[in-house]
Write a structure and sequence with these properties.
Largest sheet: 6 strands, mixed
Distance between the termini: 57 Å
Shape: elongated
Radius of gyration: 35 Å
Number of helices: 19
Bound molecules: S-adenosyl-L-homocysteine
Number of strands: 18
Amino acid sequence: MRYFPLFADLHGRRVLVVGGGEVAERKVRLLLEAGAEVSIVSPELTPRLTDKTSGAYAGALARARAGEGGRSPGEGPVSGSAIHIAGCFDPAHLDGAVLAIAATNDPAVNARVAQAGRERNVLVNVVDVAELSSFIVPAIVDRSPLVIAISTGGVAPVLARLVRERIETTIDESFGALAGLLQRWRSRIKSALPDVGARRRFYEKVVRGTVAQAVRARQADAAEAELQSLLTEAHAPPRGSVTLVGAGPGDPGLLTLNALRAMQQADVILHDRLVSEDVLSLARRDADRISVGKMAGGHSVGQGRIHELMLEHARAGRHVVRLKGGDPFIFGRGGEELEFLAAHGIPFQVVPGITAALACGAYAGIPLTHRDHAQSVRLVTAHTGDALDGLDWPALAQERQTLALYMGVAGLEKIGEQLVAHGRGASTPVAVVENGSRADQCVTITNLGELSVVAREGGICSPALVIVGEVAALAAKLHWFGAAPRTLGALSAAA
Ligand code: SAH
């Protein structure tokens, strides 16, 4: 960045303007609006500049001072004052000035002002000559107290004007009125809502909701009334909520816009171990993050404790995001959590996510259904031991369907044995997708008969999804993401 952007408080500070023509006129007008005490050096002044130095401005300033006893930053416009120093520029004119603007039509004079400024450490702007200037004046969109400054560092003034026009049209006059309204209410809002988080939410509501609408409709009284009623409402004990959010399988690009919004408005995020760092990094920075990750077998935070945490934070008025890998309603205990919240009267919402079966299918090049091979898909949890024994193996072993087995790493061997024992061919393709959609995704293609070998020797790690069915073999030719799949054992059908 070539220039340091800043907004200077010139109220009551001396600024020298060298030149008395039309260019000087524009600069003086702006300086007076900013409350500066302007000295204009020039043999002659335009009639308008003469007018400005006639005392009317000085009078306005004096009145404003008497009335307000000084001005605090950001308060409404108070005119500054201007005096005329009739004659030619002398470096001594810079004494006591904080800034100077050279606006004559004589390049030699402008250069002398620049030089004298450098010697005295006074910042000088030579109008339209960036090389001689130690500061430049941006194009502005003035919606005071909201002011937008635009600069291309002097290299493309026309572009800056174009940008200004665009902003002029999107940031209409009502933004100024809204900023003014917030300025007048600032201290009342601050004392009514001492909590920073509550205040932020309140302001969000004001600038995006009915108050802003009323301001846009030029209904100043309605806007004030609406603001008052919002403030009364916000003052009531805060009402927290829980949003159950599906974080998808890992690739942050697979988050929904609603998931992102919820994460950016959260006060507290309770997340599982399966939620990737890439996804977590998109959450609001100052949200509290609590990992309630569960390992298969060794539960790190029990389900009961997760319920308690949601309740505690929501009752304290916080927006809780319960962030789960994949989709919250697919093997995520989302149902139980909502039942608990409903029983305790905590308001909730659900944002679905892309479940592992869909993501692993897509990222491994395995269409879960296919006209030639599979007319249905079953999502099955193959959580170790007893759970596996309870599965309806005859139904799972039927042909022309795809099985997506979650949590199946420990049960790989048993899955292969049972499906073959119940009639599915030993050569039926199987794909094991580890870390689906993540940079370290790894796909192994094998068949049901070989699954026990893969289980013992394949080094398969969690999280992994097991896809059983002819479509699994398609990964060999349709893979497009990450490392190419490795193939263990002979394959049938679609390969
Ligand atoms: N609610 C989650 C599933 C939770 S159960 C969802 O909808 O995806 C956890 C199991 O999901 C893991 O054991 C694994 O089988 C699967 N899984 C989750 N993320 C995965 C990923 N990125 N790659 C492969 N499998 C994944």
